[in-house]
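Researcher: Quick test of sequence recovery. Tokens follow.
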């Protein structure tokens, strides 16, 4: 009889998986994609990618490294479902999260492509990710991936108004 009751309770819990999980909430800038679909903006945890309008220099001329970063992120997000893990942090007034796509860390992919730099100061609670990002960044710089093949500015400096000579 006890087994039957336990099985019935387990079956009920399986029917209502949301009841066993704690709801996560966050404040975000959101926009309506249609009447019943809302998109919210958040930033990648521990990564600062080149800004959409940012230019980098390679072989003496400017190229759109920021647009390349946006395009890579969009391409990766189309390759599979995104597993989004929210952190408790905020950056530029937005929630911060890690994103895994088909088992791969989007932030790490951006760094590997030479289109983002790590922000270890935001990863104090995740020392393994700090090490992975640092190793990936070092490898990307050595292999001259993306922007690391030429001159570039930290995205934070670019946002504050610094520009490369080729952008002036």
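Model:
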């Amino acid at each position: 009889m006890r087994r039957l009751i336990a099985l019935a309770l387990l079956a009920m819990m399986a029917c209502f998986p949301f009841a066993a999980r704690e709801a996560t909430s966050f404040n975000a800038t959101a926009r309506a994609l249609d009447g019943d679909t809302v998109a919210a903006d958040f930033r990648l945890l521990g990564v600062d990618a080149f800004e959409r309008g940012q230019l980098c220099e390679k072989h003496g001329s400017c190229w759109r490294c920021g647009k390349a970063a946006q395009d890579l992120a969009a391409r990766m997000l189309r390759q599979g479902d995104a597993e989004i893990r929210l952190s408790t942090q905020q950056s530029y007034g937005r929630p911060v999260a890690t994103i895994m796509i088909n088992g791969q860390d989007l932030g790490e992919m951006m760094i590997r492509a030479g289109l983002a730099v790590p922000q270890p100061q935001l990863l104090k609670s995740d020392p393994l990710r700090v090490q992975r990002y640092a190793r990936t960044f070092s490898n990307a710089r050595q292999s001259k991936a993306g922007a690391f093949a030429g001159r570039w500015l930290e995205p934070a400096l670019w946002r504050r108004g610094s520009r490369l000579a080729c952008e002036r």
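The CA atoms of residues 50 and 66 lie 5 Å apart.
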